Amino acid sequence: MFDMTNEDFKDIAPYGEADFQSNLKELVKEPGFEHAIRYIMPGVDYDAFVAQLLMLKNTDEFQIKVMMPFLEMLAKNTTDGITSDGFDEIKKGDVYTFISNHRDIVLDASFLNVCLLRYGLPTSEIALGDNLLIFEWIEKLVKINKGFIVKRNLRLLEAFKAAKQLSSYIRYCLVDKHESVWIAQREGRAKDSNDVTQESVIKMLALSAGDNVVDGLIQLNICPTTISYEYDPNDYLKAAEFLQRHRNPEHKKSQHDDLHAMEIGLTGRKGKVHFHLNPCINPEIEKLREVTDKNELFPAICAIIDNEIHSGYKIFPINYISYDRVTGEDRFADRYTQADIDAFNAYFEQQLAKVNLPDLTAEDYEFMRTRMMEMYANPLRNLLLAKGE
């Protein structure tokens, strides 16, 4: 058993059952929470909604009775369906560390939990950066909903302590609490959709592994998970951010930018969404047992995760068209129709028209259009590399 308790992680861990109802009562009084609910569910009877919430006894009830119906409603209204495969390989009673590519701030892990519940499996705890906890009520909601906090933007010594705490908490989750966890393969979303695992994430997981890194990582049952969105509602915001950094390399997003991205991600059009659960990579990690140089070991593990994630993409016409336009080829012309091309052109113009920046020129729009095409081309590019094609 792991020699720590939930008290050691109180500042980052989800609320326990003893704290659930008191924090829920505080949450529903927050004007920001009420505004968010009314924004996402127009016409909601908020008082009746609150009355239902306050009847809940614990997080499991909150997820099954509130979050699952809400997310299914959101999926119905903003997607053309969430599909999945690989989940039937999960052994009931086992726990896993789901490491995935990262597209949407909120929905990547939320829709993963929808898939788990559809298969009759327990949901996972979710890692969320504290840079997104813009208001106190957001932190309460996150911790009520099985979220744990990743501390960011710290000085070197504090960052190392936070990484050790996070690593210990994730191991505590799996070993002592017997809960699966979700964490993104990198800090923040891959704005260009070029999904590459950061070594720092694997090194963080290994901090609590003890002397034997391989055994410690095997204990976490890492399952690379591939998320494919047909459309990214935030694509035009990401393109605009690329332009702002092109204009000013020192440009940084504000908290308002993050909040706006969360709202757009929740309510925007996503098309088809697919989750592919790759097998646990323990056998591949086991093969690295003789690698004693950590400068070789961690990149090798990252490469395994990347290959699994890249191999699992579901490719849509927008990806094929973008790839052909970025490369100047017609390699995949047989994978899309003229109707697909017309829809592609209309979609790009519609999204780029939403960009709200001053003094935009024709060159600026072409720059953003190219960045958006690269976003949609990169999953296909990485899939081809993973398959050696």
Overview of the molecule:
By secondary structure, this protein is α/β, with parallel strands linked by helices. It has 2 domains: 6-17 and 82-229 and 270-314, Glycerol-3-phosphate (1)-acyltransferase (3-Layer(aba) Sandwich); 234-267 and 315-389, no CATH class. Helix content is 53%, strand content 10%. It is built from 16 helices and 7 strands. It has helices spanning 17-27, 31-40, 46-53, 59-78, 107-118, 136-144, 156-177, 199-206, 213-218, 235-247, 255-267, 282-286, 294-311, 317-327, 338-352, 362-386, and strands spanning 79-85, 97-100, 125-129, 147-150, 181-184, 222-229, 271-277. Strands 1-7-6-2-5-3-4 form a 7-stranded mixed sheet, with helices on both faces. The longest helix has 25 residues, at 362-386. The protein is globular. The relative contact order is 0.12.
